[in-house]
């Protein structure tokens, strides 16, 4: 409760300062009183990525997404492996065991779970890989498009 009171008092002081600055700039207005103020408080819960999360039904039913059921925080690594090394015919595409672990991809200095802000660094370290990130929030797709020119990854046979 003390923290909330402190934050509220800080807010009131800021509003007073803004009103005084506004008046000093020559607005010609005078504020007599503020009758009401509403403060909405909500607990911030950042999106947690990194490990397996079930897909929303709307996306799952499209059958267009490979969702690796990893138990570590390395979802980017598993997504890259799934893209570069498709699972053998008949293998469960959602299982990590369907993909090689010795993949030759450079993840040096990349954090796990990987923030979108590190995607450009990852792409610089791996010149043959371009990553587009798609997210789903409130029934809408969120997109981060690679700044790299479209390059074709060629498997060696």
Report on the structure:
The chain is mostly helical and 157 residues long. The chain has two domains: 1-41, no CATH class; 57-144, no CATH class. 28% of the residues lie in helices and 6% in strands. It contains four helices and two strands; from the N terminus they run ααααββ. It has a two-stranded antiparallel ribbon with strand order 1-2. A hairpin with a 2-residue loop joins strand 1 and strand 2. It is elongated. The termini are far apart. Residues 150-157 have low confidence and may be disordered.
Q: What sort of overall outline do the alpha carbons produce when their principal axes are compared? A: elongated
Give the mean pLDDT.
Answer: 83
Report the span from N to C terminus: 65 Å
Low-confidence stretches: 150-157
- Judged by helices, strands and strand pairing, the structural class is mainly alpha
- The number of distinct structural domains comes to 2
Number of helices: 4
Instruction: Compute the CA-based radius of gyration.
Output: 25 Å
- What spatial order of strands do you see in the largest sheet? 1-2
Helix proportion: 25-40%
**Strand percentage:** 5-15%
- Biggest pleated sheet: 2 strands, antiparallel
Number of strands: 2
Q: Which series of helices and strands comes N to C?
A: HHHHEE
Give the topology.
Elements (H helix, E strand, L loop, with lengths): L1 H23 L32 H4 L14 H10 L34 H7 L7 E5 L2 E5 L13
